[in-house]
Amino acid sequence: LEPYMDTKIRKGDRGAAVKAAQKVVGVTADGIFGSGTERAVKAYQKRKDLLTNGIVSPNVWRAMAGEKYTKTGLTAAADEPSNSLEPYMDTKIRKGDRGAAVKAAQKVVGVTADGIFGSGTEAAVKAYQKKKDLLTNGIVSPNVWRAMAGEKYTRTALTVSRSTRTASATTSSTATSAATVVTRTEFADLRSTVLAQGARGAEVKVLQRALGGVAVDGVYGSSTVKAVRSFQEAKGLRVTGIADEKLWIDLERQTYPFLRYRTQVLKPGSTGQAVRVVQQALGLEADGVYGTSTKDAVKSLQGRHHLTRTGYVGGVTWQALEREVRGQR
Question: Does the CA dihedral 247-235-9-326 come out positive or negative?
Answer without folding.
Answer: positive
